[in-house]
Amino acid sequence: MNILRFVEEFPDEQSCIIHFKTCREKEGVFCKKCNSSDHYWLQNKLQWECKSCNFRTTLRSGTIMHGSNLKFRIWYLAMAFMSFSKKGISAKELQRQLGYKRYDTIWLLMHKIRGAMGKRDDLYSLKDMIEFDEGYFEKATSERVKLKRGRGSQRQKNVAVMAESIPLTNEKGNSYRHPGYFKMKVLTSHLKNEINQVVQDNFDQASIVFSDKSTSYVNISNFVEAHLTQKSNRSTTKDTLKWVHIAISNAKRTLLGVYHKIKGKYLQAYLDEFCYKLNRRYFGERLFDRLTLAVAKIYR
Asked: Phi and psi at residue 228, in whole multiples of 5°?
């Protein structure tokens, strides 16, 4: 979907409400009281009423929009601008485009949408052949504080970067690896226990993992089918961990080109948006539709 089609399909608040109702029903509406999925739709109240116990569920209830007083069309416009732009859009620019007075409201709105992106991607596990490494991302810090340099610097956030690497063969019979799904998770330390938890949460047990010989990766083989390591050098970066390092470079370039500065505690939200778009890089105009479904879903 492009901006011209968006204006045609969602010209007013009512059109956005109807579309969001359809998205909710695709994901399924369940009663909080009795867990029934049979409901009546109350048009005047924009609520579903359970056929079994008469409990009512609002249109926003349980979704990322829950508790928001913003109009549906503001949400839809925000999702449109965030999905139309390949590299993203800053909250200040979105505020200007929407003509909205309060910056904080738009900033929070965008972070809620990024939260939906991250939760949607967390539903999937990486599988088959997986590249695993860590990247270091600059974060906003106070210039008055004396900062440590090198590994563990307060200027940087350590991020676990994971990429599916799918083996394929071209028409000439030459083998190559194609990138599949990507994930990026901000780490609080370099300790192996946290690495192990990331592997458990994001990898399929039947996977084969490629990494360098970091001491933090010693237990990865306990959670997957096989763990292959290679000493970190130029060849490892270029071949074995190719897609991981391309993703790190592209993420840094994207964040640097769009945002003035990013605080460490919000870095995960920006990486969630980057990975969500990267994982759906072939969706084209369908990206907006997928994003509305992600926002409409109730994450348990």
From this structure: -110, 130
3-class SS string, 11-47: CCHHHHHHHHHHHHHHHCCCCCCCCCCCEEEECCCCE
- Name the residue type at position 106: I
Exposure of 146 by Cβ count < 10 A (0-12 exposed, 13-18 middle, 19+ buried)? Answer: exposed
List residues bridging with 161 in a β-sheet: 133, 184
Beta strands 156-169; 175-186: pairing state:
antiparallel
C-alpha span between 133 and 51 (Å, rounded): 51
Residues 6+ apart with CB under 8 A from 184: 135, 159, 160, 161, 162, 247, 251, 271, 272, 274, 275
The whole-angstrom separation of Cα 297 and Cα 116 is 8
| Alpha-carbon gap, residue 57 to 23, rounded angstroms | 15
Q: Are 118 and 276 in contact (CB under 8 A)?
A: yes
CA-to-CA distance for 158 and 139, rounded, in angstroms?
Answer: 10
List the chain pLDDT tens, one digit each, 300 residues.
Answer: 788 899 999 999 999 999 999 999 998 899 999 999 999 999 999 999 999 999 999 999 999 999 999 999 999 999 999 998 888 899 999 999 999 999 999 999 999 999 999 999 999 999 999 999 999 998 876 555 555 555 556 678 999 999 999 888 888 888 788 899 999 999 998 899 999 999 999 999 999 999 999 999 999 999 999 999 999 888 888 889 999 999 999 999 999 889 888 999 999 999 999 999 999 999 988 999 999 999 999 987
